[in-house]
Amino acid sequence: MNREDHIVHGFKATLVARAIYMLSSALLMFVLARYLLDPNEYGTLYWAIGVLAIIQLFADLGLSRSVARYLSEYRETDPGQVPYLLKTTVATKLVLISFVTYVLLLYHEWIATVLGEPEAVPFLAAGVLYLVAFSFSTFSQVAFQGFNHLGYSAIVQAISGAGRLLFAVGFVLAGLGALGAFFGYIVGYALAGVIGMGILYYGFYRRYDAADEYEDGLSRRLLEYSVPLTATQSANVIDKQIDIVLVGLFLNPAAVAFYTLSKQISDFVLAPAESLGFTISPNFGEQKAAGELEKARRIYETSLTNVLLLYIPAAVGLAIVAGPFLTMIFGTDYAAAVPVLQVLAGFVVLQAITNLTSDSLDYLGRARARAMAKGATAVANFGLNILLIPWIGVVGAAIATVATHTVYVAVNLYVVHTELDLNVVRLARTTGLICAITGVMAVTVLLVTPLVSSLFMLGGAIALGAITWALLAVVSGLVDPGQVRSVIS
């Protein structure tokens, strides 16, 4: 199987798993928001998850992505070092997790009280279990990425999504409320973590014969490379979660629900871009090591064009139909989320580019540059949130996210350009054509949106926009139907 076929195969596996994960997440989001929890309960649940996502950073410190980078390199050049890399990483993670969960168990009440959400105390107490389950679930996924066996990553991700849906809904129906939904998350991630670590041990660790000795300095380089990744990962999580925490601090759990729901919808839309970025990124490390930067540039430019072709129209369409979509799907209680989702539609395009680019920079050895950019924009995002949320409410959090992420994407693209020497003129011309197609599609959708009065009509408006986009994309030559058929088959 050549590299292009391998990427397509990995993309299909990842996309299918991501589809299962996101569909189960979307169904869970719909059932919880529409039927099982009120906005205050929904907001408290996801506020606690946001706080735990920040705390979880200290239980990993970038080790997962660091070892993935070295697994990608050493499985080709010196396979005997692979068992040592895995043992070092797991041992270090166990120490970190033990320390972080102990501190959380001691101070969970204080954290909830200081951040203004005392009703979240039981969630943070149970967060000890959440951190352990989530940490090993995500570690196994990233390790499989380093081995370039994305099918296993796909399996782990799909199990976590399906498990969360099944157990969260089951526990809520059993009368456990929002806390029951939280325990559903824990069980889903725990199942995925056990299966993922089992596959990693029996399918990979035991398959490699350890070298006579650990390469001198390799463990040090592994830990050193985790430092910029820690900075990047920390900035990334804080960038995504601090706004949720601050909305809860300055406003109320209902506002958290409005903001969280809008972000979850944008995450659902981003599934294909995340799958593509996860698939292609290990190849850049291999190609750089082999001196095949021309192939790397071609893969990246093609992927970026396809992402823009899909997400620029998708973001515009989402902004147009945000009103009827939210009120018809989730009910009028969530009408206040409409302007938030419209602003975050711009974030969809930016995050799609980020999903394609960020991991690729890690495998190209530019983690430090990405870490500096992410750290600076995360600090800026924090400051803008503090300024805008008290001033204009929950929409301010969305504006801060879009503004700071624009700068981050621009820096990422520049760094990729310095590595791969992208054809900027051709990319700019293609982007302009995509924007023109989007303009025609937007006019079409705007004309029919005022007529929407039911879910069926909303689906028809979305379908009309998609058909308009597809026809114009084919006529303009941006989409080759033959290539689409070959990828699908």
TrEMBL record:
This is Membrane protein involved in the export of O-antigen and teichoic acid. It is a multi-pass membrane protein. It is found in: Cell membrane. Its main location: membrane. It comes from Natrinema hispanicum. Keywords: Cell membrane, Membrane, Transmembrane, Transmembrane helix. It holds the Pfam family Polysacc_synt. GO terms for cellular component: plasma membrane. CDD domains: MATE_Wzx_like (cd13128). The chain crosses the membrane at residues 20-37, 43-63, 84-108, 120-139, 151-176, 182-204, 307-330, 336-357, 378-411, 431-448, 455-479. InterPro entries: Poly_Biosynth_Transport, Polysacc_synth. The keyword Transmembrane helix applies. The keyword Cell membrane applies.
